[in-house]
Amino acid sequence: MRHILIASAVIATLSACSNGEKTARYLIDPPVTGERLANRLGTTELKDVSLPDYANAGEVSWQTADGAVRSNTKELWADNPQRAFTQTLARTISDISGATVIGEPWPLAEPPRRTLEVRVETALAEANGIYRLSGRYFVGDSGAGGSNQARSFNIAVPMGTTEPTPAIVARAQSQAIAQLARQIAVLGGPGNSVRTSSSAPRMDDIFSQPLPPLDG
């Protein structure tokens, strides 16, 4: 009888742990504004966005009053955070500007004109009731005379509470990504622009040239 009771308790525990309804998953879903901006990026490959460890984990995290970053194993992102951030940012930039921004690897036969790299330093629901998204982004243009950008961003989205739920955090992060997409689309933010002085030959151009005649 004792073994039966132990086995029943173990089964009940495993059933509770495997109950998917007790795990909540949250999407990154920026709001659609209908805004239309000039196309300043053309064809651009977005490298995988670099995120802090706490933001790249599967759990939704937030900062508490003691300064600690905390999370709950039952409150998860619906997708891999890096993949979701990268794909959502690329799509949002494309939607508002008409540019063709695609997350790596580049799937089209014609190579992109530019590359975009985003390095996030902070992506956190802070204890002061602000969702903070800050870091730097870099636009590389290898064409002669191309404009290379190295700029920073520091986006603050009020959450309306100092004790946000994961749903509030997800909504604030989505709004922050939408603001970042707009800033990148217009190449805005503090930083510098550097012109490409010369254009390195592409590998396909090199190998498409005829070989020199053999001596003799």
From TrEMBL:
Domain ABC-type transport auxiliary lipoprotein component: 26-185
Annotated region (Disordered), positions in chain: 190-216
Pfam families, per the entry: ABC_trans_aux
Protein origin, superkingdom: Bacteria
InterPro entries: ABC_trans_aux (IPR005586)
Name used for this protein in its record: ABC-type transport auxiliary lipoprotein component domain-containing protein
Species whose genome carries this gene: Paracoccus shanxieyensis
